[in-house]
Design goal:
The protein is an alpha+beta fold. The protein is built from four helices and five strands; from the N terminus they run ααααβββββ. The protein has a five-stranded antiparallel beta sheet with strand order 4-3-2-1-5, covered by helices on one side. A hairpin with a 2-residue loop joins strand 2 and strand 3. The radius of gyration is 32 Å and the shape is rod-shaped.
Length: about 140
C-alpha cells in the first residue's frame, strides 16, 4: 500500500459527507495502479531530454564507429599486407589509429596502394604514415 492509498482511505473515513465503505476502500487499494515515473517525466526540462538524447546518440555512435578490427595489428603484419597488396595490385582498407576525443575511429581509407616512400604509403591521394595504421586488410574484389 502506498501513501496515496492510505491518504485516500483516511479521507474517506473522516469525511462527513460520505458513509465509510470498507469494500470501496479495499477495491481502490487493490485496483489502483500508481503510474510511478510516468507522472514525473513531465517535470523534465527540454534541456534534460536533449542531453539524454545526445548521450544515447553518442553511445550508438561509439558502438558503430569503434575500431572495426578486434586488435591492433603489429607493424610486421601491416608491412606484410602492404607488400602483398602492392605486388598483386589489390585494394586495401586501412583503419587509422587516429581517433577523436570520444575515442571513436571516424573513418576508414579504402583503395589501391599507389606507392610507398620511407615509412609512408599513398592510397589514392592520401599519404598515410605506417605507424598511424591500426589495422589493414585486403578487400576482396567483386568479380
Amino acid at each position: 500500500m502506498d501513501w496515496s492509498g492510505v491518504m485516500l482511505a483516511v479521507m474517506l473515513m473522516s469525511s462527513n459527507n460520505y458513509d465509510y465503505d470498507p469494500s470501496l476502500v479495499q477495491r481502490f487499494l487493490s485496483e489502483y495502479q500508481d503510474r510511478g515515473m510516468l507522472k514525473w517525466q513531465g517535470f523534465y526540462l527540454s534541456d534534460h531530454t536533449a542531453k539524454l538524447n545526445q548521450d544515447q546518440e553518442q553511445a550508438k555512435a561509439r558502438l558503430q564507429h569503434q575500431h572495426l578490427a578486434s586488435a591492433q595489428m603489429s607493424e610486421t603484419q601491416i608491412i606484410q599486407i602492404i607488400n602483398q597488396a602492392v605486388m598483386k595490385h589489390l585494394t586495401v582498407k586501412v583503419e587509422p589509429a587516429i581517433v577523436n576525443s570520444d575515442l571513436i575511429a571516424n573513418y576508414c581509407i579504402q583503395g589501391k596502394i599507389m606507392g610507398c616512400f620511407q615509412d609512408y604509403i599513398m592510397i589514392g591521394k592520401q599519404l598515410i604514415k605506417i605507424s598511424d595504421i591500426y589495422s589493414i586488410k585486403i578487400v576482396e574484389s567483386k568479380n
